[in-house]
Design goal:
Distance between the termini: 12 Å
Helix content: 25-40%
Strand content: 15-25%
Shape: globular
Largest sheet: 7 strands, mixed
Number of strands: 12
Amino acid sequence: MANERARNTVIIKPSEISAHTAKAFEDIIPKYFNEEMMAVVSGGIPESTALLKERFDHILYTGCPPVAKVIMEAASKHLTPVTLELGGKCPVVVEDDADIETSAKRIVWGKWLNNGQTCLAPDYIMVSQKTKPRLLDAMRKVLVDFYTDEPKSSKDYSRIISERHFDRLVSLLDKTKGNHAVELGVPDREDLFIPPTILDVTREDVFMEDEIFGPILPVMTVSGVNDAIAYIKAGEKPLAAYIFTRSEDKVKKFLTETSSGAVTVNDVIMHLTVDTLPFGGVGNSGMGRYR
Protein backbone atom coordinates (compact mmCIF):
# COMPACT_ATOMS: atom_id res chain seq x y z
CA MET A 1 0.00 0.00 0.00
CA ALA A 2 2.97 2.32 0.53
CA ASN A 3 3.77 1.84 -3.16
CA GLU A 4 0.22 2.74 -4.12
CA ARG A 5 0.22 5.88 -1.94
CA ALA A 6 3.46 6.92 -3.61
CA ARG A 7 1.67 6.59 -6.99
CA ASN A 8 3.82 3.66 -8.08
CA THR A 9 2.32 1.10 -10.42
CA VAL A 10 2.22 -2.35 -8.78
CA ILE A 11 1.94 -5.70 -10.55
CA ILE A 12 1.07 -8.65 -8.31
CA LYS A 13 1.98 -12.16 -9.49
CA PRO A 14 0.46 -14.71 -7.06
CA SER A 15 1.71 -18.29 -7.01
CA GLU A 16 -0.07 -20.67 -9.34
CA ILE A 17 0.14 -23.31 -6.60
CA SER A 18 -2.21 -21.37 -4.31
CA ALA A 19 -4.97 -21.14 -6.89
CA HIS A 20 -7.73 -20.02 -4.50
CA THR A 21 -5.61 -17.16 -3.16
CA ALA A 22 -4.74 -16.13 -6.71
CA LYS A 23 -8.44 -16.10 -7.60
CA ALA A 24 -9.18 -13.92 -4.56
CA PHE A 25 -6.58 -11.39 -5.77
CA GLU A 26 -8.08 -11.46 -9.26
CA ASP A 27 -11.55 -10.76 -7.88
CA ILE A 28 -10.77 -8.18 -5.20
CA ILE A 29 -7.98 -5.96 -6.59
CA PRO A 30 -9.89 -4.73 -9.70
CA LYS A 31 -12.82 -3.69 -7.51
CA TYR A 32 -10.75 -1.09 -5.69
CA PHE A 33 -7.82 -0.20 -7.96
CA ASN A 34 -7.49 1.07 -11.48
CA GLU A 35 -5.41 -1.37 -13.55
CA GLU A 36 -2.89 1.39 -14.24
CA MET A 37 -2.24 1.58 -10.49
CA MET A 38 -2.40 -2.08 -9.44
CA ALA A 39 -2.84 -5.17 -11.59
CA VAL A 40 -2.85 -8.92 -10.99
CA VAL A 41 -1.19 -11.34 -13.40
CA SER A 42 -1.96 -15.00 -12.78
CA GLY A 43 -0.42 -18.06 -14.37
CA GLY A 44 2.66 -20.27 -14.21
CA ILE A 45 6.16 -20.25 -15.64
CA PRO A 46 5.27 -18.73 -19.07
CA GLU A 47 3.53 -15.74 -17.48
CA SER A 48 6.34 -15.23 -14.95
CA THR A 49 8.94 -15.44 -17.72
CA ALA A 50 7.10 -12.84 -19.77
CA LEU A 51 6.81 -10.49 -16.78
CA LEU A 52 10.51 -10.74 -16.02
CA LYS A 53 11.35 -9.45 -19.49
CA GLU A 54 9.83 -6.11 -18.53
CA ARG A 55 11.79 -3.28 -16.93
CA PHE A 56 10.76 -2.74 -13.29
CA ASP A 57 12.02 -0.28 -10.68
CA HIS A 58 11.94 -2.98 -8.01
CA ILE A 59 11.06 -6.67 -7.71
CA LEU A 60 9.97 -8.31 -4.47
CA TYR A 61 9.82 -12.11 -4.43
CA THR A 62 8.84 -14.61 -1.75
CA GLY A 63 9.73 -18.23 -2.45
CA CYS A 64 12.72 -20.54 -2.89
CA PRO A 65 16.39 -19.93 -3.80
CA PRO A 66 16.34 -21.65 -7.24
CA VAL A 67 13.54 -19.39 -8.50
CA ALA A 68 15.14 -16.38 -6.81
CA LYS A 69 18.30 -16.95 -8.88
CA VAL A 70 16.23 -16.86 -12.07
CA ILE A 71 14.60 -13.61 -10.93
CA MET A 72 17.95 -12.04 -10.01
CA GLU A 73 19.40 -12.97 -13.40
CA ALA A 74 16.45 -11.38 -15.19
CA ALA A 75 16.58 -8.29 -12.97
CA SER A 76 20.33 -7.86 -13.56
CA LYS A 77 19.73 -7.16 -17.26
CA HIS A 78 18.04 -3.90 -16.27
CA LEU A 79 20.03 -3.39 -13.03
CA THR A 80 16.72 -3.71 -11.19
CA PRO A 81 17.08 -4.01 -7.39
CA VAL A 82 15.37 -6.96 -5.71
CA THR A 83 14.04 -7.92 -2.31
CA LEU A 84 14.07 -11.68 -1.76
CA GLU A 85 12.48 -13.60 1.12
CA LEU A 86 13.51 -17.23 0.74
CA GLY A 87 12.89 -19.04 4.02
CA GLY A 88 15.27 -21.86 4.81
CA LYS A 89 15.78 -24.40 7.59
CA CYS A 90 14.95 -22.38 10.71
CA PRO A 91 16.62 -24.19 13.65
CA VAL A 92 15.32 -24.49 17.20
CA VAL A 93 17.80 -25.07 20.03
CA VAL A 94 16.27 -26.30 23.30
CA GLU A 95 18.74 -26.21 26.17
CA ASP A 96 18.55 -28.35 29.32
CA ASP A 97 17.72 -25.29 31.42
CA ALA A 98 14.68 -24.31 29.30
CA ASP A 99 11.10 -24.41 30.53
CA ILE A 100 10.17 -27.57 28.63
CA GLU A 101 6.38 -27.31 28.87
CA THR A 102 6.33 -23.69 27.68
CA SER A 103 8.91 -24.43 25.00
CA ALA A 104 6.88 -27.37 23.69
CA LYS A 105 3.69 -25.32 23.48
CA ARG A 106 5.36 -22.47 21.58
CA ILE A 107 7.27 -24.76 19.22
CA VAL A 108 4.16 -26.81 18.38
CA TRP A 109 2.13 -23.65 17.76
CA GLY A 110 4.78 -22.24 15.42
CA LYS A 111 5.51 -25.49 13.61
CA TRP A 112 1.94 -26.56 12.89
CA LEU A 113 0.62 -23.08 12.10
CA ASN A 114 -0.79 -23.56 8.58
CA ASN A 115 0.52 -27.14 8.71
CA GLY A 116 4.15 -26.04 8.73
CA GLN A 117 3.73 -24.10 5.49
CA THR A 118 5.19 -20.77 6.60
CA CYS A 119 8.63 -19.36 5.92
CA LEU A 120 9.39 -18.92 9.63
CA ALA A 121 8.18 -22.34 10.82
CA PRO A 122 10.60 -24.22 13.08
CA ASP A 123 12.27 -26.64 10.67
CA TYR A 124 14.14 -28.87 13.11
CA ILE A 125 15.03 -29.09 16.79
CA MET A 126 18.41 -29.65 18.42
CA VAL A 127 18.32 -30.92 22.01
CA SER A 128 20.46 -33.01 24.35
CA GLN A 129 19.87 -36.71 24.90
CA LYS A 130 19.04 -35.91 28.52
CA THR A 131 16.22 -33.46 27.69
CA LYS A 132 14.92 -35.06 24.48
CA PRO A 133 12.47 -37.56 26.09
CA ARG A 134 10.82 -34.83 28.16
CA LEU A 135 10.53 -32.53 25.16
CA LEU A 136 9.08 -35.24 22.91
CA ASP A 137 6.52 -36.19 25.54
CA ALA A 138 5.58 -32.55 26.13
CA MET A 139 5.15 -31.86 22.41
CA ARG A 140 2.95 -34.91 21.96
CA LYS A 141 0.68 -33.74 24.76
CA VAL A 142 0.45 -30.26 23.24
CA LEU A 143 -0.38 -31.67 19.80
CA VAL A 144 -3.24 -33.69 21.27
CA ASP A 145 -4.38 -30.65 23.24
CA PHE A 146 -4.35 -28.47 20.10
CA TYR A 147 -5.71 -30.93 17.53
CA THR A 148 -7.04 -33.93 19.56
CA ASP A 149 -5.65 -37.44 19.06
CA GLU A 150 -7.39 -37.48 15.66
CA PRO A 151 -6.18 -34.25 14.01
CA LYS A 152 -7.68 -35.29 10.67
CA SER A 153 -11.08 -34.49 12.19
CA SER A 154 -9.94 -31.25 13.84
CA LYS A 155 -11.31 -28.04 12.33
CA ASP A 156 -8.07 -26.34 13.39
CA TYR A 157 -5.73 -28.65 11.46
CA SER A 158 -4.76 -27.43 7.99
CA ARG A 159 -4.03 -29.36 4.80
CA ILE A 160 -1.13 -29.45 2.34
CA ILE A 161 -1.42 -26.86 -0.43
CA SER A 162 -1.20 -29.24 -3.41
CA GLU A 163 -0.80 -32.85 -4.52
CA ARG A 164 2.73 -32.09 -5.71
CA HIS A 165 3.81 -30.93 -2.27
CA PHE A 166 1.93 -33.79 -0.63
CA ASP A 167 3.86 -36.27 -2.79
CA ARG A 168 7.14 -34.52 -1.99
CA LEU A 169 6.56 -34.85 1.75
CA VAL A 170 5.39 -38.47 1.56
CA SER A 171 8.49 -39.30 -0.51
CA LEU A 172 10.67 -37.88 2.28
CA LEU A 173 8.74 -39.93 4.85
CA ASP A 174 9.41 -43.04 2.76
CA LYS A 175 13.14 -42.29 2.68
CA THR A 176 13.76 -41.21 6.27
CA LYS A 177 15.72 -43.44 8.62
CA GLY A 178 14.38 -41.52 11.62
CA ASN A 179 12.35 -43.04 14.40
CA HIS A 180 8.69 -41.93 14.39
CA ALA A 181 8.48 -40.51 17.91
CA VAL A 182 5.01 -38.99 17.30
CA GLU A 183 2.60 -39.68 14.44
CA LEU A 184 -1.07 -38.89 14.92
CA GLY A 185 -2.58 -40.57 11.87
CA VAL A 186 -1.66 -41.68 8.36
CA PRO A 187 -1.28 -39.61 5.17
CA ASP A 188 -4.35 -39.32 2.92
CA ARG A 189 -3.68 -37.98 -0.59
CA GLU A 190 -7.34 -37.40 -1.45
CA ASP A 191 -7.68 -35.15 1.60
CA LEU A 192 -4.13 -33.71 1.29
CA PHE A 193 -3.75 -34.70 4.94
CA ILE A 194 -0.39 -35.42 6.52
CA PRO A 195 -0.55 -36.03 10.28
CA PRO A 196 1.55 -34.21 12.85
CA THR A 197 4.80 -36.16 12.78
CA ILE A 198 7.89 -35.83 14.98
CA LEU A 199 10.98 -37.79 13.98
CA ASP A 200 14.08 -38.65 16.00
CA VAL A 201 16.81 -38.29 13.36
CA THR A 202 20.56 -38.15 12.79
CA ARG A 203 22.40 -35.36 10.99
CA GLU A 204 22.53 -37.42 7.79
CA ASP A 205 18.76 -37.91 7.52
CA VAL A 206 16.92 -36.81 4.37
CA PHE A 207 14.83 -34.38 6.43
CA MET A 208 17.98 -32.46 7.36
CA GLU A 209 18.80 -31.56 3.76
CA ASP A 210 16.25 -28.96 2.60
CA GLU A 211 13.49 -26.80 4.07
CA ILE A 212 10.60 -29.12 4.95
CA PHE A 213 7.61 -26.76 4.60
CA GLY A 214 5.18 -29.23 6.10
CA PRO A 215 3.89 -30.79 9.35
CA ILE A 216 6.95 -32.98 9.96
CA LEU A 217 9.43 -31.99 12.68
CA PRO A 218 12.86 -33.70 12.94
CA VAL A 219 14.54 -33.74 16.35
CA MET A 220 18.31 -34.14 16.38
CA THR A 221 20.50 -34.92 19.38
CA VAL A 222 23.39 -32.57 20.20
CA SER A 223 25.81 -32.37 23.09
CA GLY A 224 25.01 -28.75 23.92
CA VAL A 225 24.79 -25.20 22.62
CA ASN A 226 28.30 -25.26 21.12
CA ASP A 227 27.48 -28.37 19.10
CA ALA A 228 24.20 -26.81 17.94
CA ILE A 229 25.87 -23.56 16.89
CA ALA A 230 28.54 -25.47 14.94
CA TYR A 231 25.82 -27.34 13.05
CA ILE A 232 23.95 -24.13 12.20
CA LYS A 233 27.13 -22.43 10.99
CA ALA A 234 27.97 -25.38 8.74
CA GLY A 235 24.77 -24.89 6.72
CA GLU A 236 23.07 -22.08 4.84
CA LYS A 237 21.93 -19.02 6.79
CA PRO A 238 18.27 -19.40 7.83
CA LEU A 239 15.51 -16.78 7.79
CA ALA A 240 15.22 -17.14 11.58
CA ALA A 241 16.85 -19.05 14.42
CA TYR A 242 15.29 -19.86 17.78
CA ILE A 243 16.76 -20.74 21.16
CA PHE A 244 15.02 -21.74 24.38
CA THR A 245 17.12 -21.22 27.51
CA ARG A 246 17.20 -19.38 30.82
CA SER A 247 20.88 -18.54 30.38
CA GLU A 248 21.73 -15.01 29.23
CA ASP A 249 25.27 -16.18 28.44
CA LYS A 250 23.94 -18.82 26.04
CA VAL A 251 21.68 -16.26 24.39
CA LYS A 252 24.61 -13.87 23.89
CA LYS A 253 26.70 -16.70 22.46
CA PHE A 254 23.89 -17.68 20.09
CA LEU A 255 23.41 -14.10 18.91
CA THR A 256 27.13 -13.53 18.45
CA GLU A 257 28.11 -16.78 16.74
CA THR A 258 25.18 -17.49 14.39
CA SER A 259 23.92 -15.53 11.39
CA SER A 260 20.27 -15.48 10.31
CA GLY A 261 17.54 -13.07 9.27
CA ALA A 262 16.42 -12.81 12.90
CA VAL A 263 16.69 -14.53 16.27
CA THR A 264 13.84 -15.04 18.72
CA VAL A 265 14.58 -16.16 22.28
CA ASN A 266 12.17 -18.46 24.16
CA ASP A 267 9.58 -18.21 21.40
CA VAL A 268 9.18 -18.67 17.64
CA ILE A 269 7.93 -16.45 14.80
CA MET A 270 6.85 -13.65 17.16
CA HIS A 271 9.54 -11.20 15.98
CA LEU A 272 7.44 -10.88 12.82
CA THR A 273 4.67 -9.25 14.86
CA VAL A 274 6.88 -6.35 15.98
CA ASP A 275 6.13 -3.90 13.19
CA THR A 276 8.99 -1.57 14.11
CA LEU A 277 11.58 -4.28 13.38
CA PRO A 278 12.93 -4.94 9.88
CA PHE A 279 12.05 -8.34 8.42
CA GLY A 280 14.15 -10.18 5.87
CA GLY A 281 16.76 -12.84 5.25
CA VAL A 282 20.49 -13.05 4.76
CA GLY A 283 22.52 -15.12 2.31
CA ASN A 284 20.51 -18.11 1.09
CA SER A 285 17.43 -16.98 3.04
CA GLY A 286 17.15 -13.72 1.12
CA MET A 287 18.24 -10.12 0.84
CA GLY A 288 16.67 -6.78 1.60
CA ARG A 289 13.73 -6.39 3.94
CA TYR A 290 9.97 -6.04 3.87
CA ARG A 291 9.92 -3.02 6.11
